[in-house]
Design goal:
22% strand, Rossmann fold, 238 residues, 7 helices, alpha/beta, six-stranded parallel sheet, elongated
């Protein structure tokens, strides 16, 4: 097998990493827990942009770059595609399929934070599931709103926001209890497409709660795209 540099988080990328031997490298941005039970080498941290990543690819003798990062990690995906091109190595990407609205859903898609805040104005008790970005905006929460912000880890909130640290997969009964206990009247979510976090959408549908969806970024073209881990692993085994 060619020497692989795998870029990713700890969901699908971790499944791929568990199949890689010691000659390969699994690269994490450093967010979340770093696995310690892998045969492949684990690298944590950035590269200093496109040129830094291209330099690393050359220095390490990488033959194939795999982008299995989050669908919203657009800058990393852009850097990966450009660095692979500079280095003359192929770039394959795992593109997780997006969720699709179903009957009974009330989805309201927004493109950025400004549109999101405007869409949020009529509501009072949002459940915010956008990761850490909303932490930068806690002082902007209007007095008539109280946010429940769910992230991977616990962070300080304020008098109008409580931050819950929790990691998926989430069970639908637990999501039902959360919506009920906190009287959630709107859900804010990325369209990550992850089965681990999909139950929140089911509960919103059951309760008739609108969902403000942050639109997916446009990702760069690569040499090959895969829409499941199984398909990528099959290609790697050939």
């Amino acid at each position: 097998m060619k020497r692989i540099l795998l870029l990713g988080g700890v969901t699908e990328a971790l499944v791929i990493a568990r199949t890689l031997g010691p000659q390969h490298i699994y690269s994490l941005a450093g967010i979340g827990r770093v696995p310690t039970d892998l045969q492949c080498r684990v690298r944590v941290g950035g590269y200093g942009g496109v040129e830094g990543l291209a330099q690393f690819i050359g220095d390490e003798g990488i033959d194939l770059l795999l982008d299995a990062t989050h669908p919203y990690a657009a800058q990393i995906s852009q850097n990966a595609a450009l660095a692979a091109r500079l280095s003359g190595v192929p770039c394959w990407a795992l593109r997780r399929p997006a969720w699709q609205a179903q009957a009974g859903d009330d989805w309201r898609e927004v493109s950025d934070w400004v549109e999101l805040i405007e869409a949020l104005e009529p509501f009072h008790r949002p459940l915010v599931t956008l990761g850490r970005e909303p932490l930068q905006h806690l002082d902007e929460i209007p007095p008539e709103q109280f946010w429940t912000l769910r992230a991977l880890d616990v962070y300080p909130g304020n008098e109008r926001c409580e931050v819950i640290g929790a990691r998926g997969p989430f069970l639908i009964d637990d999501e039902r209890e959360l919506f009920e206990r906190r009287n959630i009247d709107v859900l804010i979510s990325k369209n990550s497409g992850s089965t681990a976090t999909e139950p929140k959408l089911e509960v919103a549908r059951e309760r008739g709660v609108p969902v403000i969806v942050l639109k997916r970024p446009v990702l760069p073209g690569v040499d090959r795209e895969f829409f499941s881990v199984a398909d990528m692993l099959d290609a790697l085994s050939m």
